[in-house]
Specification:
This protein is α+β, with helices and mostly antiparallel strands. Helix content is 28%, strand content 23%. It has one domain (11-175, 206-224). The longest helix is centred in the first third of the chain and has 27 residues, at 2-28. The protein is flat.
Amino acid sequence: MDEVARLLTLLALLGGALTLLGGVCVWRLDETRRIRRTLIQALGGAPQPLLVARGHGVGIGFDLSRNLVVVTWDRGGWRLTYRLDELMGVELIVDRQVVARAFRGEPRRALDQLADAEERVRLRFVFDDPEHPDFEIDLWEPGDELRRGRLDAHEALHEANRWMARMDSILRRPAPRPAPVPVAAAPLPTPAEPPSPPRASPAAREPVGPLFGDDAFDDDEDALR
């Protein structure tokens, strides 16, 4: 009888440990937390403001004190960092039409009406970068209401409208002036000295990633559902 009691106690403890471990894994693999960790890693601190499209695996974060913008996709697996002055503008797309926009040097085109969307609610951030000129965040698509933690069409449109006002405020800020770089005086070359070689062009911006191992995402969607 004592052996049976000890076995039952051991099984109960094992079951509790597995339940706790599973809860920790679900918490760590949560999509929003992963995206937030990626943005914190890129910015060196908590992003402010921060936008995460739950269920779509994308997000954007700002560090206004350091004039940086970071975008991330693939549930935080990849990221790109821009300077704040490279952000040229933002468009709000409802279904297949641009209904509001805010760009540097242009008057803001505000959202006229909050009619519910039928196909999508999307924010498109436009950057001054020929290789990666824009980044799109879908705040709502059909079927999102059926999944836990996602916005419906009405909520997504209100959230997008708030972000348009926020972006208009950021875009109207004066562009930061780069700090002067001290240049040491170089001695004049003698006539016999060969000319200096041409400077190499700066390296192109490349996305950073993947930031997590493939094993960390195998069962992520199943765990969150």
